[in-house]
Amino acid sequence: MLLQASGIVKHYGVTPILEGVSLQIGERDRIGLVGVNGAGKSTFLKILAGELDSDQGSVSKPRELRIGYLAQNSGLAPQLTIQEVMNAAFGPLLEQERALGRLEARIADPAEQADAARYEALLAQYADANDRFREAGGFEMNNRIRAVLHGMGFGDFAPQTVVSSLSGGQRTRLALARLLVVQPELLLLDEPTNHLDIDTLTWLEQYLRTYSGAMVIVSHDRYFLDATVSSIVEIERQAATRYTGNYTRFMELKAADFAQKVKLYDQQRKEIQRMEEFIQKNIVRATTTRRAQSRRNALERIERLERPGTLKQASFSFSAERRTGKDVLQVYDASAAPVADISPPVQACRLRGQARRAHRAAWSQRRRQDDPAARAGRSASARGGHDPLGHRRAARLL
Hints:
Blueprint: E1 3-12, E2 15-25, E3 30-34, H1 41-49, E4 56-60, E5 67-70, H2 82-88, H3 91-107, H4 110-114, H5 116-135, H6 141-151, H7 168-182, E6 186-190, H8 198-209, E7 214-218, H9 222-228, E8 231-236, E9 239-244, H10 247-282, H11 289-301, E10 330-332, H12 353-369, H13 372-382, E11 394-396
Parallel strand pairs: 3-7, 3-8, 5-6, 6-7
Antiparallel strand pairs: 1-2, 1-4, 8-9, 10-11
């Protein structure tokens, strides 16, 4: 067990956010933390990371546990460079590297070599420090930094690029890169997919799939959660419920759980109604009073189930005044040139997928049939026209 949160309670003023929330995180757990906006997901993640104190409850974890926490705001110092941000993640290793450099300078000093016994002790000290540095991953440090920066989309950035020159999204990606390169035993990620393009998002999914530690991810991206987590914890009405499986499985289990709760509630309501009717009919009869009183006592001991309910959800509906065709825009005989005194280049039609193949097939067929448009085009070419293909082209913007 890496971390255990028990009975977490948190209020902001008189507003309850979390009421008795508990969570256990194992060594290889992949947990998705979900809930509506304002449910308390980020607050709970901050409490787990030690960034925020709870009003009640406790968080237990080993003292040596390394936790990597990514907040929604990067928190990077604007005056630092990309290289300095990444190097700062290896503070202890950098100190070991500097210590090795000092030992190497002493080993090369003739004064140290003059005393054989002291020189042998120095070599032994260097060998021991070098082994510790290697076991801690010091010799792979720079390679790991380059690999993570490339994966997070910073491969073309100069190492001396200042953080203040980066956009908000780039700062978030850099903060995530700094977190991943350290490889802590527990990752706490609050909306890590914000500001990520498709390539970076794909790289992050693959990286997290093979990550050796545990992770808790807050995200509204259901496809990202499906690809990275194996259990879901939902925070709803200040309480937490855990489900086994990815997000898609969670939705199925939640629907089944809700249906079961509705069924039990209806059954209890019918039973209570039946008992109340029996009591009302038989309480005044001398022959059935005892039975009615017994039923009344049993009714009072029943633990009433709450009516299952769901949170209000927004619903949008858009109506179109008229439907458009498949061709949103058609362009005929379009030409362009960088400047006015340069003849426009050969027209090009950029289509993708099936549209491109269909366009090429139609063009080939027209060429084979030698239609009038193609003959007119060859005549125009012979007269010095700028379009050697000479037939009319239509482009669809898809």
